[in-house]
Amino acid sequence: LAGSDAQWDKAPCRFCGTGCHVQVGVQEGRVVAVAGDRNAEVNKGLLCVKGYHVGAALYGKDRLTKPLLRVGKTDKYEEISWDKAIDVIADRIEEAPERFAFYGSGQWTIPEGYAAQKFMKGGLANNHIDPNARLCMASAVTGFLATYGVDEPAGCYDDLDACDVLIMWGNNPAEMHPVLFSRVIDRRSKGEKVTLIDIGTRRTRTTDACQHYLEMKGHGDVAIANGIAHLLIKNGTYDKKFVESFCNFKAPDNDNPNLHGKAITFDEFKAALEPYTPEHVEELSGVPADQIRMLGDLFGNPELKITSLWCMGMNQHTLGTAINAMVHGVHLLSGHFGPPGNAPTSLTGQPSACGTVREVGTLAHALPGGRVVANAEHRQQAEDFWNVTPGRISETPGYHTVQMWESFCTPTDDGGDIGTIWVQVTNPGQTLPNLNKLFNPKAKLDDKFLIVSDVYPTATTRLADLILPSAMWVEKNGVVGNSERRTQQWFKMVDPPGDARDDCWQTLAVAHRLFERGMDGMKDRDGRFLFEVKDDQGKPIPVWNWENYYDTNVDQHLFDEYRKFSRLKHKDLAPYDAYVKARGMRWPVVEQNGKWLETKFRFSGGYDPYVAEGKDIQFYHSSTKDDRAQIWFHPWEPPAEVPDDEYPFMLCTGRVLEHWHTGSMTRRIPELSRAMPSAYIEMNAEDAAAANLSNGDKVKVESRRGTLEIQVWIDGRGRPPRGTVFIPFFDETLLVNDLTLDAIDPFSKQPDYKKSAVRIRKV
Ligand code: SF4
Fold it and tell me: What angle do CA 757, 761, 763 make, to 5 degrees?
């Protein structure tokens, strides 16, 4: 533990999208202690078991410290200099800039993601950049856009302190966002009355703390949302005044499928819901009709404050956009919208899925500040902000994640036009669905080149041609944005090991090498380097040389440049310096009397500075341009794959408390690794007995795409119902994504990891 001479400074936790504030103790150049910040609004001094051990994530024995280049076609690597590594990447890009793709992350800091996307869209005129967040929250984005015309939650964590009812839709916050969940449990332990409802496909630690558990079949959530809307209208308990004042109705446009669908009348909406009686919803979802009526009564009670939370259960779903929009719709229809305590709120899994992916716009169709490449005015705005040649940005959206990897894993002669992918801060060799289609074929494709920047060897580096050692967390400066629109900043506190370098520096160094070679795309309109940074006297500072990287605050320069975009869609950020002083602020942040003020609740009068005076609610980014939100009807549809005689079990994948995502950091923390050493298959006790299986038995799990041998855990951490099984994805030695399906939502392009048909045999 830290001695008396330790230096303490602030940082957000490195792991999940909750964004807990930690105090980091540094002594003799090492992180020696971490504590929850007692003054922090997000976590009030608490951390979960991952957060308490976050400092140890820096000190695994096998940190990557040197650039490594594959020797020929062998499995061997040679250490090379950064100079050579940068040349290798520049060569690949120069050879075919249009065949280069960048695959990033919701763990990129805001400046890192901003630099990567400016490099691609404003520099290479190539939109093939997409983040791993496509796999985790793209359907939340499309749900917000379809409903409000603009992304990200209106509510915030304060709703958890004020709600009377908290509904978790396919969500297990007791393990995935434990500090947030503890805020509600804490209220109950103090004697406050708050009703917790878990709507899920298996019993979890969250279920154990809930008064009600509604066990549904896969895709049951769509039927349940329609069932609630049906009852609100049938019973006359919907909020007529709210709906007439602030809402329109929408349905899918089957003749011209698109995110904004077609307008329908209230009567058409009502008629579409007619079949969704509680009894019919029970047939579709498996949830008893009485429990559907209970939900209808709760939403029909205007005295209650209701908050909904969701995460991967609703997002990793082939109807992901639909169910996201429908949960917003249930809140709008019932008037359970508006502060504090009434909120439909999606959570993110990564520390900057909101900040870097959604706000910076690192998705293949997006530009910073909620803009899109397909819109000529948006492109022109970005070209002006970046001072690049008019027409530089391509109007064609790049490949989304599944398309990008499918193209990369297809031989060039057969149309696989992506030839090189640079991966930063993520592990697609473990997280892509259907790995035998979307990742593993790379092993046999000599014409394809994979570059991976990471801190440890991973399931992705096993197929890399060039491995680059990265700095992480407090080894570099950073700014991130959490699930409640809160932007947080921290400074570098310790040096990275060996030759490990910031991801942002890596991108800038390659950009500058291309500039030196004369590539036009790396110049602005005045012929200067695209990422030029000047000192106080206006003299350029060569930030692409590592020795100079911290002479000026590159993060600050990029952040302040990016900040201009944030004002285009009322997501205003404060200047960098304001975040240095604050423990984070929720956007829009506006200046008043020399102070920077955050916004807790969007679209609500008295809270949101962009709501016109005298209005209670104003959806000022309405896609129908009338300040109204859209309430959607979507019909229930079955999952893309359902169990049958050949593959009789439904497989769901997910996370566990002890490990963060692919475990590449947490499995190197001894305490966490000991607590949860390896993956397992959770089985229902009756299913196990029927197959003569006991705890610890090894089984072969087979899908139409792959096989996995793994140990059985009966009624273990979670308890799946009969006919379903669960396998966590944190273990790189037991890759569950060999089994999963790559079916995607048509609008968000997000895969469904929760519903793959499998069969199980004792080994
Ligand atoms: Fe907080 Fe998430 Fe970190 Fe746990 S992992 S301490 S909940 S930010």
Answer: 140
Taking each continuous run of H as one helix and of E as one strand, the counts in the chain are 24, 33
Q: Which residues are annotated as a binding site for [4Fe-4S] cluster?
A: 13, 16, 20, 48
Other CB atoms closer than 10 Å to residue 107's CB: what's the count? Answer: 29
| Bridge partner list, 451 | 422, 466
Here the tokens at position 679 are 């993956």
Give 335-386 as a 3 state SS string: CCCECCCEEEEECCCCCCHHHHHHHCCCCCCEECCCEECCCHHHHHHHHHHH
Q: Please report the domains of the chain, with CATH numbers, ordered by start residue.
A: 7-59 (3.30.200.210), 68-135+352-564 (3.40.50.740), 138-347 (3.40.228.10), 649-740 (2.40.40.20)
Q: Find tokens 């009397």 and name the residue.
A: 593
Query: Quick check: 483 and 354 in contact, CB under 8 A?
Result: yes
Could you say which DSSP state residue 121 is in?
Answer: I
Please give the Cα distance from 615 to 259 (Å, whole number). Answer: 28
Of 49, 50, 186, 583, the one to substitute when testing ligand 1's pocket (max ligand atoms within 8 A of C-beta) is 50
Nearest CA to ligand 1 atom 4: 48
**Residue 557, H or E segment:** helix 554-566
CA pair distance 735, 737, nearest whole angstrom: 5
* Cβ of 17 below 6 Å from ligand 1: no
pLDDT value at 553 more than 90: no
The answer to whether the CB of 51 is under 6 A from ligand 1 is yes
Ligand 1 close to Cβ of residue 351 (< 6 A): no
Reading the block at residue 621, the tokens are: 């980014």
**Three-class secondary structure assignment of 507-538:** HHHHHHHHHHCCCHHHECCCCCECCCEECCCC
Ligand 1 binding pocket includes 42 (Cβ within 6 Å): no
The residues that are catalytic are 50, 136-137, 312, 349-350
Residues 130 and 358: beta-carbon distance below 8 Å: no
Whole-prediction pTM value?
0.97
Peptide bond just before 639 cis, omega within 30 deg: no
pLDDT band of residue 1 (cuts 50, 70, 90) is very low
Per-position b or e across 183-205, b if 16+ CB within 10 A of its CB: bbeebeeeeeebbbbbbbbbbbb
8 Å CB contact between 139 and 349? no
Which stretch of 37-51, 281-295, 491-505, 746-760 has the lowest confidence by average pLDDT? Answer: 37-51
Q: Across 150-284, where does the E strand assignment appear?
A: 165-169, 195-200, 212-215, 247-251, 262-264
State whether the beta carbon of 488 lies less than 6 angstroms from ligand 1: no
Return the residue whose CA atom lies nearest to atom 6 of ligand 1: 51
Q: Can you say which residues are annotated as belonging to the binding site for substrate?
A: 729
Share of the chain above pLDDT 90, in %: 96
Atom of ligand 1 nearest to the CA of 22: 6
434 lines ligand 1 (CB under 6 A): no
This model of the complex carries an ipTM of 1.00
Distance 295 CA to ligand 1 centre (A): 30
Best mutation site among 21, 37, 44, 47 for ligand 1 pocket (most ligand atoms within 8 Å of CB): 47
Binding-site residues sit at 13, 16, 20, 48, 50, 107, 132, 136, 312, 316, 427, 453-454, 476, 503, 653-662, 729, 737, 754
Q: How far, in whole angstroms, is CA 579 from its chain's centroid?
A: 22
Question: How far apart are the C-alpha atoms of 479 and 697, rounded to whole Å?
Answer: 46
Q: How many angstroms separate the alpha carbon of residue 179 from the centre of ligand 1?
A: 6
The answer to whether residue 714 scores a pLDDT higher than 50 is: yes
Check if 50 has its Cβ closer than 6 Å to any atom of ligand 1: yes
